[in-house]
C-alpha cells in the first residue's frame, strides 16, 4: 500500500544501539509511508510535541528506537484506526517484550487533526496527561486486549526489549514502578515482577537482570514526587539510586579496598557494646 500521503512514522532516538535495527524493520514494511526521525530531542514530551508540530498527514505512528516492527505493522495500524469512528483518536497495539517474556502496550497511531489540539506538557506521564484531556472532551482511545495474547497474536505487531544496557533497564523499571504507584493500572503486572527478576538473576548472574531488579525496588521505595517532569535522556545519570548502585557493583567486583581485613566472625565495631 502507498500510505505516503496518509501516514507519517516518527522514530524517536537518543542514539540507543537498536536504532539501526529499528530502521531496518521499518524499511521492510509491506507499505510505503513518510518517515521522520526525531533525533535527541528532550525531554520526552518535547519529542512527542515535535510529532504534533511536524506531521503533515492525517495519521501518524509513534515508534521508539527499541521497537522492532513486524512487516505488516504500519499497514495494520492505519487500517484499524481509519476504520473507526472519527472520535477515536488513538489506537494502541501490543508488542512482545523479549526481556519480560510477556505482551505489553507500546505501539501507537494517532488521528493528527484532533490530537494536535492537545499539546504535550512537561509533566510526569505526559501521554496520560494528554489522554485524560482528550477523554474529557469526549474522544476515545482504543487499546487491544492483552489477556491471552502471545508473540504471534493478531494484535501483536512487533518486538520490544531485545537489547538492554544495565543503566537503561534500571531506568525503565524505576519509572514503570513509580508510574504504577501513581495509579497507572496498565502496569499492575509489575507487582509480581521483582521476585521473577531475582530468580532470574540468581540463575544467570546477568548484570542486566540485577539492574532490572534494583530498578523495580528503587521505584517501589522512591518518593512519588521524585519524577515531577517527563523523562530526559540528558539526566539519566541522575536517576535516583543509580550512582549508589554503580558504586556498590564496583565494590563487589573489586573487593573492599579500605579498612583492615577481618577474620570470619569479627566486626569493625562491637555491635553489642553499650553506647555504640
Molecular structure report:
- With 276 residues, the chain is an alpha/beta fold.
- The chain folds into 2 domains: 7-160, Spore Coat Polysaccharide Biosynthesis Protein SpsA, Chain A (Alpha-Beta Complex), CATH 3.90.550.10; 166-254, no CATH class.
- It is built from 9 helices and 8 strands.
- It has helices at 19-27, 44-54, 73-82, 112-115, 126-136, 166-181, 193-204, 207-221, 242-254; strands at 7-13, 34-39, 59-64, 67-69, 88-97, 102-111, 140-143, 156-160.
- Strands 1, 2, 3, 4, 5, 6, 7 and 8 form an 8-stranded mixed β-sheet that branches.
- The N and C termini lie far apart (76 Å).
- Residues 269-276 have low confidence and may be disordered.
- Assess the beta-strand content as a share of residues: 15-25%
Mean pLDDT across residues: 88
The CATH C-level name of the largest domain is Alpha Beta
Reported for the largest beta sheet, the result is:
8 strands, mixed
Query: Would you count the extended β strands for me?
Result: 8
Determine the number of helices (DSSP H or I, runs of at least 4 residues): 9
CATH architecture of the largest domain: Alpha-Beta Complex
CATH topology of the largest domain: Spore Coat Polysaccharide Biosynthesis Protein SpsA, Chain A
Overall body shape: globular
- Within CATH, the superfamily of the largest domain carries the name Spore Coat Polysaccharide Biosynthesis Protein SpsA, Chain A
Percentage of residues in helical conformation:
25-40%
**Into how many domains do the coordinates divide?**
2
What's the N-to-C terminus distance? 76 Å
Unreliable residue stretches: 269-276
> How would you classify the helix and strand content by structural class?
alpha/beta
Amino acid at each position: 500500500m502507498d500510505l505516503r500521503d496518509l501516514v507519517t512514522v516518527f522514530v524517536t532516538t537518543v542514539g540507543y544501539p537498536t536504532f539501526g535495527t529499528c530502521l531496518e524493520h521499518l524499511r521492510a514494511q509491506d507499505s510505503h509511508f513518510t518517515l521522520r526521525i526525531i533525533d535527541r530531542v528532550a525531554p520526552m514530551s518535547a519529542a512527542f510535541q515535535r510529532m504534533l508540530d511536524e506531521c503533515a498527514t492525517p495519521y501518524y505512528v509513534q515508534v521508539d528506537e527499541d521497537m522492532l516492527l513486524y512487516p505488516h505493522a504500519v499497514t495494520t495500524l492505519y487500517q484499524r484506526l481509519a476504520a473507526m469512528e472519527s472520535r477515536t483518536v488513538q489506537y494502541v497495539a501490543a508488542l512482545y517484550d523479549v526481556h519480560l517474556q510477556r505482551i505489553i502496550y507500546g505501539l501507537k497511531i494517532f488521528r493528527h487533526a484532533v490530537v494536535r489540539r492537545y499539546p504535550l506538557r512537561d509533566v510526569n506521564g505526559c501521554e496520560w496527561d494528554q489522554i485524560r484531556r482528550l477523554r474529557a472532551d469526549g474522544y476515545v482511545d482504543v487499546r487491544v486486549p492483552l489477556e491471552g495474547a502471545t508473540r504471534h497474536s493478531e494484535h501483536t505487531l512487533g518486538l520490544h526489549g531485545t537489547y538492554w544496557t544495565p543503566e537503561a533497564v534500571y531506568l525503565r523499571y524505576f519509572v514503570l514502578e513509580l508510574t504504577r504507584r501513581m495509579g497507572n493500572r496498565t502496569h499492575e503486572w509489575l507487582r509480581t515482577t521483582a521476585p521473577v527478576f531475582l530468580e532470574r538473576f540468581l540463575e544467570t548472574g546477568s548484570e542486566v537482570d540485577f539492574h532490572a531488579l534494583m530498578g523495580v525496588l528503587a521505584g517501589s521505595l522512591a518518593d512519588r514526587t521524585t519524577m515531577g517532569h517527563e523523562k530526559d535522556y540528558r539526566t539519566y545519570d541522575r536517576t535516583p539510586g543509580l550512582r549508589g548502585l554503580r558504586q556498590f557493583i564496583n565494590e563487589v567486583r573489586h573487593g573492599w579496598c579500605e579498612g583492615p581485613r577481618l577474620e570470619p566472625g569479627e566486626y569493625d565495631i562491637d555491635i553489642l557494646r553499650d553506647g555504640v
